[in-house]
């Protein structure tokens, strides 16, 4: 279903103590749990607690990982823009079967190997201009919290021990499958993990895995071993945010079984466990097939940013609704590069002109007077930005329309400055440039597209990328 056509829950939010009037924004998000859009209302007025599932760090991250990170970075930025105090937690999985297999192949210590790729992931995130989360916990640093939660689950008769392994008994948890719509009878054994005859139910999943030779392990009441995959996020989200928080996010592929199992674990450990909004980003596809390492059809973030400026990649990622599938396309990436170049070229031209006109810009503290066109343009851009962003982060609709009209107006105003004008009219044009540029950069800042360096530096880097692409094309 087209995300823009989903129905909106009409419940009105109460006023919060956020810095800005968040009621005016009427921020609406799509909740996977209820399968409808709902007006966002945090559990604590003015504060938002958000947990997003991060990467399993055993290799360079691919474009699908970038999409998840950028999608929730935009959410993080927009919540802050609305005035909320946001606690954002995104984890690293550094204890996992895939990590152990890769470490055995390379002869490295699994935790060291994973730590290396955690650092590489953060380099990629910095390039894509994703803000650092409040906390970035790793599994290996939270084993005690994980063991404590498993103990609570066992004590409440939702878990059982077999030969040093601990399993979660899914048939004891009411409403298992409420997030995904999956029914236990449809979860056939052997399709996701190997059949284990020791389980009471084929759908039961591991909370703790008994140690095997050559694997990292920790002591526990059930014997030496390591955590299962699902328990880590339940334990870490509870540790940093409590059992009751506002937003839990991740990729669409995590709805089942990962997030379904998180709900069961957390609910078993604490009856009052509650996440208000479950949010999921769509897949990145390659030839309409999900991009993933297991299929071997992926491109790493590093491979792509070597050929395209990272901000062009970010533009490409947010130029589709975060819940829609996004097909990898060289044509679209080149289009994103050209769009970024046009944006920064226009703003650089504006900045260059204004820097030469400093003496003509009033500094008396009075509100700036602008032309009627500029006033209308600013109002339209501001309203369109708020309307689209507040409608479940419709970023794809923001970088067109009023935003492009604002850039066009900047170019028109720059042309006007080259003509002879009366002093008052010239002043109106100059102040209009200042105000339109200010509004445009606010939009870029919330979208994470305002560069940390000068526009000229981005343009030079863009030109280098274009030269590289031409060289590669000619060589082929």
TrEMBL record:
GO annotation, biological process: cysteinyl-tRNA aminoacylation
GO MF entries: ATP binding; cysteine-tRNA ligase activity; metal ion binding
One Pfam family matching this protein: tRNA-synt_1e
Keyword Aminoacyl-tRNA synthetase applies: yes
Listed name of the protein: cysteine--tRNA ligase
Cross-referenced InterPro entries: Cys-tRNA-ligase (IPR015803), Cys-tRNA/MSH_ligase (IPR024909), Rossmann-like_a/b/a_fold (IPR014729), tRNA-synt_1_cat_dom (IPR032678)
Source organism per UniProt: Hibiscus syriacus (Rose of Sharon)
EC number: 6.1.1.16
Needed cofactors: Zn(2+)
Polar residues bias spans: 1-16
Region (Disordered): 1-22
Positions of the tRNA synthetases class I catalytic domain: 41-336
UniProt keyword list: Aminoacyl-tRNA synthetase, ATP-binding, Ligase, Metal-binding, Nucleotide-binding, Protein biosynthesis, Zinc
UniProt xrefs under PANTHER family: CYSTEINE--TRNA LIGASE 1, CYTOPLASMIC-RELATED (PTHR10890:SF26), CYSTEINYL-TRNA SYNTHETASE (PTHR10890)
Protein family per UniProt: Belongs to the class-I aminoacyl-tRNA synthetase family.
GO (cellular component) term, any one: cytoplasm
């Amino acid at each position: 279903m087209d995300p823009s056509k989903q129905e909106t829950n009409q419940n009105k939010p109460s006023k919060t103590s956020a810095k800005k009037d968040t009621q005016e924004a009427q921020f609406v998000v799509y909740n996977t749990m209820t399968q409808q859009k709902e007006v966002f209302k945090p559990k604590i007025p003015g504060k938002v607690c958000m947990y997003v599932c991060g990467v399993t760090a055993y290799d360079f991250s691919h474009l699908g990982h970038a999409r998840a990170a950028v999608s929730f970075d935009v959410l993080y930025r927009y919540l802050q823009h609305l005035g909320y105090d946001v606690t954002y937690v995104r984890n690293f999985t550094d204890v996992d079967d895939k990590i152990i297999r890769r470490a055995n192949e390379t002869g490295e210590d699994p935790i060291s190997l994973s730590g290396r790729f955690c650092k590489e992931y953060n380099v990629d995130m910095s390039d894509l201009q994703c803000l650092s989360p409040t906390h970035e916990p790793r599994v290996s640093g939270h084993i005690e919290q994980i063991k404590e939660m498993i103990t609570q689950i066992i004590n409440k008769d939702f878990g059982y021990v077999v030969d040093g392994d601990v399993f979660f008994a899914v048939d004891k948890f009411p409403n298992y499958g409420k997030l995904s719509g999956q029914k236990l009878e449809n979860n056939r054994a052997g399709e996701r993990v190997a059949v284990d005859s020791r389980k009471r139910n084929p759908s039961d999943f591991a909370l703790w895995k008994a140690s095997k030779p050559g694997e990292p392990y920790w002591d526990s009441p059930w014997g030496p071993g390591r955590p299962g995959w699902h328990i880590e996020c339940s334990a870490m989200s509870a540790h940093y945010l409590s059992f009751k928080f506002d937003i839990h996010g991740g990729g669409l592929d995590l709805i089942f079984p990962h997030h379904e199992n998180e709900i069961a674990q957390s609910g078993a450990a604490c009856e009052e466990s509650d996440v208000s909004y479950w949010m999921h980003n769509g897949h990145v596809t390659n030839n309409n097939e999900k991009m993933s390492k297991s299929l071997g059809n992926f491109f790493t973030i590093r491979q792509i940013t070597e050929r395209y400026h990272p901000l062009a990649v970010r533009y490409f990622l947010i130029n589709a609704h975060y819940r829609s599938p996004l097909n990898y396309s060289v044509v679209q990436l080149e289009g994103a590069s050209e769009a970024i170049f046009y944006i920064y070229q226009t703003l650089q031209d504006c900045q260059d002109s204004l820097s030469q006109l400093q003496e003509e810009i009033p500094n008396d503290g009075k509100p700036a007077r602008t032309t009627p066109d500029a006033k209308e343009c600013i109002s339209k851009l501001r309203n369109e930005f708020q309307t689209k962003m507040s409608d479940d982060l419709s970023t794809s609709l923001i970088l067109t329309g009023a935003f492009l009209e604002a850039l066009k107006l900047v170019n028109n105003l720059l042309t006007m400055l080259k003509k002879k004008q009366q002093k008052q009219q010239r002043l109106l044009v100059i102040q209009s440039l200042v105000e339109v540029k200010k509004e445009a950069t606010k939009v870029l800042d919330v979208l994470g597209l305002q560069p940390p360096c000068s526009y000229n530096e981005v343009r030079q880097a863009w030109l280098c990328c274009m030269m590289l692409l031409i060289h590669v094309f000619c060589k082929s």
